[in-house]
Amino acid sequence: MLQPFSGSGWELIKGTCFWKYSVDPSSTLGGSDVCIVGTTYSASCADGAVRFFDLATEANHRRASSICLSKRRAGEGAMAEEAAAAETSRKLYGYALSSNSVRIAALLNEKGLHYDLVAVDLDNKTPEFLAISPFGQIPAFQDGDDVLFESRAISRHIATKYKHLGPDLVPTPSAKLETWLEVEAHHFYPAVADLVYEIRVRPRLPGGVPPDPAVVDGLARKVDDVLDVYEAHLAAGNRYLAGDVFTLADVNHMAQLLAMSKTPRAAELVAARPHVQAWWEDISARPAWKTTVAALPLSPP
Ligand SMILES: N[C@@H](CCC(=O)N[C@@H](CS)C(=O)NCC(=O)O)C(=O)O
Organism's domain of life (predicted)? Predict the structure, then answer.
């Protein structure tokens, strides 16, 4: 519930607070809590940290509050967790143009976690790399003592282990989240990856030939069918894939959506669907995503 800002008992964190967020009286956030400045929230959490949230929707208010509340409940433990996260050494084995590697970079940036990118030469896989990625594929990830391969397992691990850092990307329970994580893996990714490969990758391989228009048309039709389902889902009142909050399901799509945006034939398929296009514009405007993309040596379409 949004109420006009009344002033008393509320600390101005930055600029002017226009609204205050009212939560269950038994679980108030404390003196300063949440305020909005334009479309930016600042939330003063009970652990002393001030967090910022984007876009002034009521859903985001709820989310900002629950993040603060869970921080507060965790108390000292949460602060120790943040300190431990900051000290953990992380290595992302991959390379910048692998969309499965970008998936992980995007998530680490959302969580504000430092990592070192270890560039892998896929033509000369070292024993060290094969020891942590037995199928010889990137990405692989070392997170302190945790070693993982398979990008979706890595992304789930990061989102869960660091649930309370940055945005909570795995709110539970969430039937939509579970569903759309699987839709990405089994419908969206295979269709889009095949199309992008045919147009952008195959012609650039040694001895590569220009894309076959008939093959491209067939692959584009498969992407069309998949995106029709997304358009209907988003048009049915879902701002994000899991509903009204940005989650891991959205993050997992971003690297492939970026590849589509750099591939005119694929970008047209997104642009033709207003809700899919609006969703992409929304999630790609996130600061963490901009940081991710700025680090990529992207080739022109
Ligand atoms: N299911 C794997 C697929 C990983 C994958 O296909 N990686 C590609 C690069 S994006 C790769 O390592 N290719 C080299 C190879 O298979 O030897 C994941 O999601 O991590």
Answer: Eukaryota
How many DSSP H helices and E strands does the chain contain? 12, 9
User: Which of 100, 157, 253 to mutate for ligand 1's pocket (most ligand atoms within 8 Å of CB)?
Assistant: 100
Q: How far is the CA of 263 from the centre of ligand 1 (A)?
A: 20
| pTM score, whole prediction | 0.75
Burial group, residue 37, by CB count within 10 angstroms (0-12, 13-18, 19+): middle
| 27-36 confidence digits (pLDDT tens) | 333 333 444 3
Residues whose beta carbon lies within 6 Å of some atom of ligand 1: 98, 100, 122, 136-139, 150-152
pLDDT band of 247, cuts 50, 70, 90: very high
Residue 168 in any domain: the answer is: no
**Number of domain units in the chain:** 3
200 lies in the same domain as 283:
yes
Whether residue 296 has pLDDT greater than 50: yes
